[in-house]
Amino acid sequence: MPRKISESTVRRLSHYLRALERRVGDSSTLSSEQLAREAGTTAAQVRKDLSFFGSFGKRGLGYTTQELIDHIQGIMGLTHEWRVALVGAGRIGSALYEYGDFRARGFDIVAIFDADPGKIGGVWEGVEIRSPDQITEVLRREAIEIGVVAVPADAAQDTVDTLVSAGVRGILNFAPRRIRVPEGVTVQDVNMVMELEALAFQLTDPRVETLGRGATGT
Amino acid sequence: MPRKISESTVRRLSHYLRALERRVGDSSTLSSEQLAREAGTTAAQVRKDLSFFGSFGKRGLGYTTQELIDHIQGIMGLTHEWRVALVGAGRIGSALYEYGDFRARGFDIVAIFDADPGKIGGVWEGVEIRSPDQITEVLRREAIEIGVVAVPADAAQDTVDTLVSAGVRGILNFAPRRIRVPEGVTVQDVNMVMELEALAFQLTDPRVETLGRGATGT
DNA sequence: GTATGCTTGTGAAGAGTTTCACAAGGTGTC
DNA sequence: GACACCTTGTGAAACTCTTCACAAGCATAC
Questions:
Q1: DSSP structural state of residue B213
Q2: Which residues of B touch A92 (CB under 8 A)?
Q3: Is the pLDDT assigned to residue B24 strictly greater than 90?
Q4: Which residues are B123's β-sheet partners?
Q5: Which region holds residue A40: left if phi is over 0, alpha if psi is between -120 and 50, else beta?
Q6: CA–CA separation, A79 vs A68, rounded Å?
C-alpha cells in the first residue's frame, strides 16, 4: 500500500514550508486560505495535499505555524542532516558548493570528486577533492545517501551508475541527459537550458499572436 | 483558440531536441519508438506531443532527424537569438554567466545588473555590470525579452516588477520565492533546494520501509 | 449549555494527461 | 501494379490531479 504521492504535491510541500518559515512569529495560526495565497495555490489544494499525510489543522481555527512546519519537515525527511557527495568540481559544481544554502537546509556536502588531475588534491573549505576512482570506497565509508552530478553530459550515466552501486538512492543531476537508474533510485534533474527553452516557447507560441497585445495584464 | 500546450509537453520537446541532436548524422531517419527510448518516454507520447503542432513524420518510415530538429526548433522559438538580461552578479549569477552553454543555445546575456556598488562598473567578458537603476532604460534600448533573476529572495519580487515594466515577458527565477506576475508574463523557477527536498522526501517516505530492501532494482 | 461562526478534512465531480489500439497511408519488393 | 510490411496520426479509454461543496468539529460569546 505504498500510497502514491504526486510530484506536484511534494513540490508544493516545499513551497508551504518556505511560506510558513517566513511567517514564524507573526501570528501563531493561519488558515489554508492564507497559506495558499502565500504559496501560490488554492485553499482546497493545500488541504488536500496535507490530508495525504494526516490531520494537522483545527477546524474553525486553522493551522499552528510552528506545528505545521514541524509536520512538513517530518514528512519530507528534513529533520536530519543528509550526507551528500558532489561529483564534478567545475563551474556548476563550484557554484553549488559555494552557494551554501544547502548546508543551511540540512544537506551537507561531505565529499567532492573530479576527474581532472589538476583539481584532485585541492581542498574546498576543508573537503578534499578526490579522484572518481575513490567514489565507491568513500561513499560507503561516509554513508552518503545523495549524489549531486555536475559532470559533462557524456560522463553522467557512468557517474550515476557508480554512485548507485555505492549505495546512493537519490541523485540531483545537472547534466543535460536523461539518466537511467534502477527502480528504488530517484533522479531529480536541474536543467537551466531547458527552462530557458520553455520560456522561449511561451514567448513564441502562436497564442501570443492570437491574443494580441490586449491580453497582457487582463 | 489558443491551443493549450501542457508544461510537460514543452519539457519533452526539449528532451526530443537533445536526443535528436545526439543522432545527427547517424541514420537520417528514426521512429517514434527510437526517439522515445532516447528521450525517456513512450512512442505514443512522442507522437501525441508532436501531433499538437503538425504532422512531421512519414508513415511506415518515421521522422527525418534533421527535419524534426528544424521543426521543433521552430515550434519552440529557437531559430533566433534571444536577448537576455542577468540581474544579480553573485555566486549563482556568475556561475550561470560563466557556464556559457546558454550562448551556444541562442540565449545571449547582453546586460548584467547588480546592486553591490563594489561590483558596478566591473566587466564580464565585455559586458559591463550596471546599477539596477538602469534596468528600465537599458532593457528598452537593448530590446531584451528575457530576464534571469539571481538576486536574494527578498529582492526578487521588486526586481521582477521592474523587469516586467521594462517589457520583459519571460523570467528565469533562481530566487527561492514564488513570484507574482501579470498575465502574459511567464516565470520559470529553478530552485535547487526544492529539488533536494524532493529527493529527501523520496528517501524518507514510508513506502521505502513498506517495500523493503528487495524492491530496489526489481 | 446552547447557538453562532468559521475552517478543516474529504468524497465526488470535473479537468487534464497519458496510454491504447487501430485505420490511414507511406515504402520497397516482386 | 499488387502485396507485404511498417509507422504515423488520432479518437477513445484509462488514469491522474485539481476543484468543488459540504458535513463534521472546534472556539467563542452569551
A1: G
A2: 95, 99
A3: no
A4: B128
A5: left
A6: 13
Cell of A12: 508544493
Q: Determine whether the interchain pair A40/B180 forms a contact, defined as Cβ–Cβ distance below 8 Å.
A: yes
Exposed, middle or buried, B61 (CB in 10 Å: 0-12/13-18/19+)?
exposed
Q: Which among A83, A94, A199 is the top mutation candidate for probing chain B, defined by the most B β-carbons within 10 Å of its own β-carbon?
A: A199
Residue at B87: amino acid letter: V
Q: What is the mean pLDDT of residues A102-120?
A: 95
At A8-20, the pLDDT tens digits run: 999 999 999 999 9
Question: Which pLDDT belongs to residue B215?
Answer: 34
Closest by Cβ to A10, choosing from B17, B178, B201: B201
Judged by CB atoms closer than 8 Å, whether chains meet at B76 and A185 is answered as no
Contact residues on chain B for A5, CB-CB shorter than 8 A: 201, 205
Q: Which residue is nearest to nucleotide D27 (CA to C1')?
A: A60
Secondary structure (3-state) at B38: helix
Nearest to A168 by CA among A149, A186, A146: A146
| pTM (predicted TM-score) | 0.91
* Alpha-carbon distances of B27 from A48, B20, B34, B63, B205, rounded to whole Å: 49, 11, 12, 11, 44
pLDDT at A197: 97
Angle at which helices A192-204 and B65-76 cross, to 10°? 70
DSSP A58: B
Count of CB atoms within 10 A of residue B196's CB? Answer: 25
Chain B residues inside the 8 Å CB shell of A193: 14, 101-102, 105, 107
Question: Within 10 A of B135 (CB to CB), how many other CB atoms are there?
Answer: 22
Closest CA–CA distance from residue B155 to any residue of chain A (Å) = 14
Beta partners for A64? Answer: A29
Half-sphere exposure of A7 toward its Cβ, with a 13 Å CA cutoff? 8
Task: Estimate the crossing angle of helix A135-142 against helix A153-165, to 10 degrees.
Answer: 50
Tell me, what's the pLDDT at A3?
66
Q: How far apart are the first and last CA of chain A?
A: 45
